[in-house]
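Supplementary Methods S3. Input chains for the assembly prediction are listed below.
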Amino acid sequence: MGKWITFEGIGGCGKGTQIELIYNWLIEQDIQIVKTKEPGGTEFGSSIRKLVLPDQHPKLSPFTELMLFQADRHETVKQIIIPALNQGAIVLSDRGPFGTIAYQGFGKGVDLDLIDKITVEATEGRKPDFTFLLDIDPEIAKKRIKERNNSEIDQFDLEEIQFQEKVRKGFIDAAKNDKAKKVFTIDGSKQIQEIHYEIINIFEDHII
Ligand SMILES: Nc1ncnc2c1ncn2[C@@H]1O[C@H](COP(=O)(O)OP(=O)(O)OP(=O)(O)O)[C@@H](O)[C@H]1O
Ligand SMILES: [Mg+2]
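Predicted structure tokens for the full assembly:
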């Protein structure tokens, strides 16, 4: 059985950057590795990803949003994550269940117990083995997004700082309440290489 590792945090915290670095590092170690993302890990999910872009349907209700993200997650878990884990791979997910608590729960007021229940169904009861939370001040994250080349504009990039503050609190709360205590919270404002080395150390000590 492999291990499922999620990378979480607000837009611009550095998830994609760090996943790319640790993905390449793991390949160098000859470790079987699969990379996926939410939303849009599957072909079906990439259609959902388009639906949740703000310019498509800007007034989606939080509940509709919740269900779309969970449907996307369910397909990714079934089609990609569980088969890869069964083959013994390490799966790196760009976003995961914490995001639903943070955005739809803390950000948009959806009931947290409801979120939990639907997440259990969506993930077939499988929980990430480890989670990296890249915690960062939304102001810094926003600046980074603006500077990012070939920027993927998504709904979360365009939300206001105040909303992002609520979301950030949601991520921190999700980490605090994680019963398995397998969350590593990292200061996302540090330099890219410094964070990468921190993540390598955690992989060596706890994951591989
Ligand atoms: N530690 C860092 N210090 C400075 N800049 C960084 C750092 N990490 C990432 N960046 C830069 O900030 C931008 C956002 O990073 P990245 O795309 O990895 O974030 P993300 O969490 O994947 O964002 P999103 O959720 O919007 O996809 C990129 O241009 C990246 O090069
Ligand atoms: Mg990204």
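The longest strand covers residues 3-8. The radius of gyration is 16 Å.
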